[in-house]
Specification:
The complex is a heterodimer of chains A (497) and B (505).
Chain A: H1 9-17, H2 23-36, E1 43-46, H3 48-61, E2 74-78, H4 105-112, E3 116-121, H5 160-167, E4 173-178, H6 184-190, E5 193-196, E6 216-221, H7 224-234, E7 264-268, H8 278-293, E8 297-301, H9 309-324, H10 345-356, H11 359-372, H12 378-400, E9 405-409, H13 426-430, H14 437-442, E10 446-453, E11 459-465, H15 471-485
Parallel strand pairs in A: 2-3, 2-4, 7-8, 7-9
Antiparallel strand pairs in A: 1-3, 4-6, 5-6, 5-10, 9-11, 10-11
Helix pairs in contact in A: 2-3, 5-6, 7-15, 8-15, 9-11, 9-12
Chain B: E1 13-15, E2 20-32, H1 71-83, E3 91-92, E4 95-98, E5 108-111, E6 121-126, E7 132-144, E8 148-150, E9 159-161, E10 168-174, H2 181-198, E11 210-220, H3 223-230, E12 240-245, H4 248-267, E13 275-280, E14 285-291, E15 301-302, E16 309-310, H5 313-321, H6 327-338, H7 342-348, H8 352-361, H9 367-385, H10 396-407, H11 413-426, H12 430-436, H13 445-458, H14 460-466, H15 472-483, H16 490-500
Parallel strand pairs in B: 12-13
Antiparallel strand pairs in B: 1-2, 2-10, 2-11, 3-16, 4-5, 4-15, 6-7, 7-10, 8-9, 11-12, 13-14
Helix pairs in contact in B: 1-5, 2-4, 6-7, 7-9, 8-10, 10-11, 13-15, 13-16, 15-16
Classes of the chains: A alpha/beta (497), B alpha+beta (505).
């Protein structure tokens, strides 16, 4: 096996700085892999020329002191990040042809450290979905399969492309965004690590908005260390985003010591929900045992308002989305419907938005519009805001009692077959987010790490939720679990041409 | 002078066949915040630039763009609130008002519905015969302006200019305390005057810096008192809102028309329907724009891109300390300290520029003279030329110089007026012009006496007539003036002539 297979950022960093591999060679390696992995449909845009150009530049810099922390590291980002002079559509028809003249703050931070962009990654349209099936590009296919079935599985969503590309080793790592679990759920489905930082840790500037009070960018990586490396780089206050916070960004990588002594890990009773497969319960119990064995104290906790998280989320997120997506009207950029003679502005709006948005996006715009309407606002939106503060309070209570972090499963199931929820109620799909949504509502950092598989070999993830601004703690606990669980990252390569 | 004991003006009434109706008016004034940049972006707010040149990525609502609050605009709104004696809310919040229109790129306007920055205040409006209307301010919130749609440049296309998009506005909402069309415009003038004094809005109505939505209803005589006691709006009748008015004259006309329209409806046994109306300048009528049923559901909700606005009391205090003297206070001071008439004080404090000019020119002990010269000579001349105090060709320093010469009797009133003209046209120093044009008045007694003696000696016939006809005295004065090329001090000359001719003045 080539030494370039299954590299991590930290290993590639070493190879590059020791001159054992050039940035160009590494970039060419990934471009070739992307090329031969088109079946996965993980990338919606490949930027080969730009990548090689940047790689050449990196090779010149590699010996210099100010080469940047990610010099020569090939990455890819979700199509939701505005990338200057490169098509950015959030996997929606309505942004057809849109090329932003600006670069999102978090991606600029990557390029400032001389990371290399390989391309843009597939996702659910406007990040609305948990299966990648709402993408205008068609779904990404999960690189993991049940060997005996060979049935295409969903990579999860909405950052399905970001997780699948990392799992299939098409890039060293990627960026996704997480509004209700959109980093963590696909990370769990693809056997990779994904962290959603504290709300306000990273700038949202230049990221196409879904639900502004919940959206956060974060890395999807092969290891916890890589997540720590990337998160530190993309974090920090941005004066262009008033919701980003001016807290000091710690050295996350340096905090990875794996020392669990004196740590109190909370196990919330409310996450033991009916119908959770025994494999997931077993995974959770194994995780608990591993942490106990490593010296942590395990405590039973209660987060009593957990059961209201999903309904709260599915009021608030669509409400914000219905307003955030009003700007896609065919007037300024993106798709514009063709009008018949005599049709005017109202037809322009109706046709553009009917033709430009997919079903799930339309459904959420309608739900959001409804819950904000006169006569319903108090009953839905305002009530949801109140419940949100109760959910937040649940977490605060637990953390104030000395709990360092909370351990839960990431998802209530492993990756499911593509199309399997097509005929079912949309709520079936929404149930995927049941464990991930509370951290978004409370604005807390949460990570998903793969710690085991189902009996038939599909990856499963555990989630660690920490207090606000304690990403170091969350990463360190994940780091320990990663070491102790012995999860082997490696789907079989069935997809190469 | 504003005096709290002064009586309230009579409300405007309309005599119907069934009843006497009274007019009730409340206004929502949109005042553009004076600021170099927009409320949530760094774009310029300069009026009249090429279309779509004052537009940032945020203003154009590009995907992923976020608003960042301009703190200067917040301070301007606080200053305005303090100037209107209003409560500043230390906690306020921004809300999104959602609606689709091409000149609203975001698809929502960021405003403040639930928690406005400024609470209750008041404006005292001077009306005729010393009566004063106190207009309550309900709230002031800050919000973004929309862009401009242009529909008349092409038969098939509409154009959008986003220069105004995102410019900061203060919406100043009054209580329904305004009782006539005259009071409505007087209120707006007073508000504009205060804003201009504060420097928080330029008040330019032509450029749209000050616009008003006018709510008009009519009620039976006596009904308003019930409202005053109960605060139950149903006593005020059903209101119609006349949108987007930016001319004093049209506001007056629109209110008059609308009140009469409502009275006619009610007298005929019909109902007034609550709706939004537009004033049509050509026909002089208001026309229905949209009814309450057609009204937008704006789906207001807190803007998730902006944290709550928390203000420090220290900031409010420091703005309060630096608050300039406001028109009412200034007027009172002018009357009390300078002894000028209420009318003169009113005229001089109409705008801050005039008041400042007056105080710069002011010569101790000669306040009335200063006021007269500014009001009669300067304002008269400025009006004639279509100029204002800001671009007066005569500076305060030059006018002060002219008046100083006059007061010291170095020049006569007539000369002063001539000098005023010279300075107006040349913009040169009055003292230099006096020298150059040999304008110095002769007050030297000896010199004038010599001239008087000469004239008396040369005209014995006239001297004889003086005894029977004292008016001849004026002829002697005239001769002396002539002999002195008009430079003899007329007062001194008069006295000398009378003395020499033995006449008691």
């Amino acid at each position: 096996m080539s030494k370039l297979e299954n590299l991590t950022i930290s290993k590639a960093r070493d190879l590059l700085s020791r001159g054992e591999v050039s940035a160009v060679a590494l970039t060419e390696h990934y471009l070739a892999k992307i090329e031969s992995s088109q079946k996965l449909n993980a990338f919606c845009l490949t930027t080969a020329e730009l990548a090689l150009e940047k790689a050449k530049h990196c090779d010149k810099l590699i010996k210099s002191a100010d080469k940047g922390k990610l010099c020569g590291i090939p990455l890819a980002v979700k199509d939701i990040f505005c990338t200057k002079s490169l098509p950015t559509q959030a996997a929606s028809k309505i942004l057809e042809g849109f090329i932003p003249p600006y670069e999102s703050t978090v991606t600029s931070k990557l390029w400032a450290e001389n990371a290399i962009l390989l391309g843009k990654l597939n996702m659910d349209e406007f990040a609305m979905g948990s299966s990648n099936e709402t993408s205008i590009y068609g779904p990404t296919i999960n690189p993991w399969q049940v060997a005996s079935e060979m049935q295409p599985l969903s990579p999860g969503g909405s950052s399905g492309g970001s997780a699948a590309a990392v799992a299939a080793d098409l890039c060293l790592a990627s960026l996704g965004t997480d509004t209700g679990g959109s980093i963590r759920q696909p990370a769990a489905f693809n056997g990779v690590v994904g962290i959603k930082p504290t709300y306000g840790r990273c700038s949202r500037w230049g990221i196409i908005a879904f639900a502004s009070s919940l959206d956060q960018a974060g890395p999807i990586t092969k290891t916890v260390r890589d997540s720590a490396i990337l998160l530190e780089i993309i974090s920090g206050h941005d004066k262009k985003d008033s919701t980003s916070v001016a807290n000091k960004v710690p050295n996350f990588e340096a905090a990875l010591d794996g020392d669990m002594r004196g740590k109190k890990i909370g196990i919330p009773a409310e996450y033991r929900i009916d119908g959770t497969p025994p494999e997931i319960i077993k995974l959770w119990e194994t995780g608990i045992e591993l942490l106990r064995d490593s010296g942590a104290e395990i405590v039973d906790i209660s987060l009593p308002h957990t059961k209201y998280s999903l309904p709260t989320y599915y009021v608030l997120a669509p409400a914000e989305a219905s307003s955030n997506l009003a700007r896609y009207d065919g007037v300024k950029y993106g798709y514009r419907a063709t009008l018949k003679k005599g049709e005017g502005i109202n037809e322009l709006y109706e046709k553009t938005r009917s033709e430009g948005f997919g079903d799930e996006v339309k459904r959420r715009i309608m739900v959001g519009t409804y819950v904000l309407s006169a006569g319903f606002y108090e009953a839905y939106y305002q009530k949801a805001l109140k419940v949100r503060s109760l959910i937040k309070k649940d977490f605060e209570n637990v953390f104030s009692m000395g709990v360092n972090a909370i351990l839960t499963p990431t998802t209530p199931s492993p990756a499911f077959p593509l199309g399997s929820k097509e005929d079912k109620s949309p709520v079936e799909m929404y149930l995927n987010d049941v464990f991930t949504v509370p951290a978004n509502l409370a604005g807390l950092p949460a990570i998903s790490i793969p710690t085991g598989t189902t009996d038939n070999g599909l990856p499963l993830g555990l989630q660690i939720i920490g207090p606000a601004w304690k990403e170091s703690e969350v990463l360190n606990i994940a780091f320990r679990l990663e070491q102790d669980s012995g999860f082997k990252f490696k789907p079989d390569q069935w997809w190469t041409n | 002078m504003i005096n709290k004991q002064q009586k309230e003006p009579q409300p405007q009434t309309i005599e119907g066949t069934l009843s006497t109706w009274e007019v009730v008016i409340g206004m929502e004034v949109h005042a553009q915040i004076k600021s170099d940049s927009k409320l949530f972006s760094e774009s310029s707010t300069v009026f009249g630039n090429e279309p779509n040149t004052n537009v940032s990525l945020v203003d154009a609502a590009m995907p992923g763009m976020l608003p960042v609050l301009n703190n200067f605009c917040v301070e301007q709104a606080i200053k305005t609130g303090l100037g209107l004696k209003a409560k500043i809310n230390l906690f306020s919040q921004f809300d999104r008002k959602n609606y689709f229109y091409p000149d609203l790129p975001q698809g929502y306007q960021i405003s403040q519905l639930y928690h406005p920055l400024v609470g209750e205040g008041e404006v005292m409006v001077q009306m005729e015969e010393g009566s004063v209307r106190k207009v309550g301010i309900e709230r002031i919130h800050i919000e973004q302006d929309a862009g401009k749609s242009i529909h008349d440049m092409d038969p098939n296309l509409s154009f959008i200019d986003l220069n105004r998009t995102g410019v900061g506005l203060m919406e100043i909402v009054s209580r329904p305390d305004i009782r006539s069309a005259d009071e409505a415009t007087a209120y707006l003038r007073k508000l504009r005057q205060i804003l201009q004094y504060l420097g928080t809005c330029d008040g330019n109505m032509q450029e749209g810096s000050l616009r008003a939505d006018v709510n008009v209803s009519v009620c039976h005589k006596g009904s308003y008192e019930n409202y005053s006691q109960t605060k139950d709006f149903s006593y005020l009748g059903t209101r119609c809102e006349i949108k987007n008015m930016n001319s004093m004259r049209f506001i007056q006309q629109a209110i008059d028309f609308e009140a009469r329209r409502q009275v006619a409806l009610l007298e005929d046994g019909n109902q007034v329907i609550q709706e939004t109306r537009l004033y049509d300048v050509d026909s002089g009528k208001t026309k229905s724009m949209r009814s309450k049923e057609e009204a937008h559901d704006y789906r207001y909700f807190p803007c998730p891109d902006l944290p709550a606005l928390k203000i420090n009391q220290e900031l409010v205090n420091s703005i309060q300390e630096k608050l300039p003297e406001l028109p009412d206070e200034k007027k009172t001071r002018f009357i009390e300290d300078f002894g000028i008439t209420e009318y003169d004080a009113e005229v001089l404090t109409m705008d801050k520029g005039s008041a400042d000019f007056f105080e710069k020119v002011l010569i101790n002990g000669h306040e009335k003279l200063t006021a007269n010269w500014i009001i009669n000579e300067l304002f008269g001349r400025l009006n004639k030329e279509g100029l204002n105090i800001g671009n007066s060709p005569i500076s305060a320093a030059h006018l002060k110089e002219i008046l100083s010469h006059l007061i010291k009797s170095e020049i006569s009133s007539k000369m002063a007026k001539e000098l005023f003209e010279l300075v107006w046209t040349t913009k040169r120093s009055p003292s230099e012009l006096i020298k150059e044009h040999s304008m110095k008045q002769v007050t030297d007694q000896g010199h004038i006496e010599k001239l008087v003696d000469e004239i008396i000696n040369e005209n014995p016939h006239q001297v004889e007539r003086v005894a029977s006809n004292p008016k001849i005295l004026g002829w002697f004065v005239g001769q002396v003036m002539k002999a002195s090329d008009g430079k003899a001090n007329p007062k001194v000359t008069n006295e000398l002539v009378a003395k020499k001719l033995g006449i008691n003045l």
